[in-house]
Design goal:
This protein has helices spanning 46-55, 75-78, 105-111, 186-195, 224-234, 250-259, and strands at residues 2-7, 28-32, 38-41, 65-69, 93-98, 131-136, 143-145, 148-158, 161-169, 174-178, 201-205, 239-242, 267-269, 275-277. The radius of gyration is 18 Å and the shape is globular. It has 278 residues and is an alpha/beta fold. The protein is built from six helices and 14 strands. α4 (186-195) packs across α5 (224-234). The longest helix has 11 residues, at 224-234.
Length: 278
C-alpha cells in the first residue's frame, strides 16, 4: 500500500514562509494498492494537485476509476472537488462516499457547485464529465472497493454533521484515518480504538495543541495527546499527526513531535507531499 499526503492543513490555506515545509493545502490523502487501484480520503484543496497528477495517466485518457471517501462536509474536506480535473473528463468513473446527516450527501456536494458560488460546470447536475456516483454510508457493513476493504464508523459529530473515520486494508497492510474527531465520551473513543486496532499507520486529528485543547473543548477537534492515547490503545504501529491548525508553524510542529519522543512508536507531523509505503 502506498500513501501520499496532498494536503494536511485544517480549515483554510494561508501560504506563508513559516508553513512552507509542512504545507498549506487542506486535507487530501491518496491511497494506492499493488493492484493500482486509487482511493482518496477527503477532497480539500489538496485534491487539485492530486487530480493534476492523475491526469498524466489513465485519468487523462478517460480510463480512470477512483473512490473518494469523505470524513465530513466542511469546506476543508470538500472544496477541492470542483477543481479535480479528472472529474471533468468523460469516461472516468468516480464513486464518492460519505454521510450527510440531515441532508443527502449528494445534495451537499451539489450545493457548493451552484453557479452562485462556483465557476466550474456542475458535473453532479449536468450530463458532462466523468460518471459520478454518490453513496450514502448508511449501512455499517464494510465496503469492498476494488483491492480495498474499507471499514467505517461515526466517531463524532461536527457542527455540520457526522464525522466519519475509516480503516483501509489491501490484504497486506492497513491504514486508519481519523482526520476530525473530539472524544466527548468513552464510547466515541472506543469506536475509534476498535476501528484502528493494529493499524500499520494511523493518521489522526491534532488540530489543537495539548496546551490549547482545554480551552477549546466542544469545538470538534483533537490534540496530539489524544491521538497518542488512541494509537497506543489500538496498538497502531505508526502515528501521523494531521489536520494542522492554519496558524501552526513548521517550528511549532517540529516542537510537538519532539515533545512526544518518549512515546514507544514512530510519530511525525503530516507533511504535504509525504509518502509512506506499507
Amino acid at each position: 500500500m502506498r500513501i501520499r499526503l496532498w494536503g494536511a492543513r485544517g480549515e483554510i490555506s494561508i501560504p506563508r514562509s513559516e508553513t512552507r515545509r509542512y504545507g498549506v493545502n487542506t486535507l487530501c490523502v491518496q491511497v494506492e494498492s499493488s493492484g493500482a487501484s486509487t482511493l482518496i480520503l477527503d477532497g480539500g484543496i489538496g485534491l487539485n494537485g492530486l487530480g493534476n497528477a492523475l491526469f498524466a495517466g489513465a485519468f487523462g485518457r478517460g480510463q480512470g476509476q477512483a473512490y473518494l471517501l469523505f470524513s465530513h462536509t466542511h469546506w476543508s474536506h470538500i472544496h477541492g472537488v470542483p477543481f479535480c480535473l479528472p472529474l471533468l473528463i468523460p469516461g472516468n468513473a468516480f464513486r464518492l462516499f460519505g454521510r450527510g446527516g440531515a441532508h443527502a450527501m449528494r445534495e451537499l456536494l451539489l450545493e457548493q457547485m451552484q453557479p452562485t458560488y462556483c465557476p466550474v460546470p456542475n458535473f453532479f447536475y449536468e450530463n458532462i464529465g466523468a460518471q459520478v456516483e454518490v453513496c450514502e454510508l448508511d449501512d455499517p457493513q464494510p465496503l469492498q472497493l476494488a483491492d480495498f476493504r474499507v471499514e467505517h464508523a461515526e466517531v463524532g459529530h461536527s457542527h455540520g454533521g457526522p464525522c466519519m473515520a475509516y480503516s483501509i486494508s489491501d490484504g497486506q497492510a492497513s491504514l486508519a484515518y481519523i482526520p476530525v474527531v473530539e472524544y466527548r465520551d468513552e464510547a466515541s473513543r472506543a469506536r475509534a480504538v476498535a476501528l484502528c486496532r493494529g493499524a500499520d499507520l494511523l493518521i489522526h486529528d491534532a488540530y489543537y495543541s495539548d496546551d490549547e485543547y482545554p480551552a477549546q473543548q466542544g469545538l470538534g477537534h483533537s490534540c496530539p495527546q489524544q491521538a497518542v492515547d488512541v494509537a497506543c490503545r489500538a496498538g497502531a504501529k505508526r502515528l501521523i499527526l494531521f489536520n494542522h491548525h492554519p496558524a501552526r508553524t513548521d517550528d511549532a510542529l517540529d516542537a510537538t513531535v519532539k515533545a512526544l519522543s518518549h512515546v514507544p512508536m514512530p510519530i511525525e507531523a503530516g507533511c504535504e507531499g509525504g509518502e509512506y509505503i506499507l
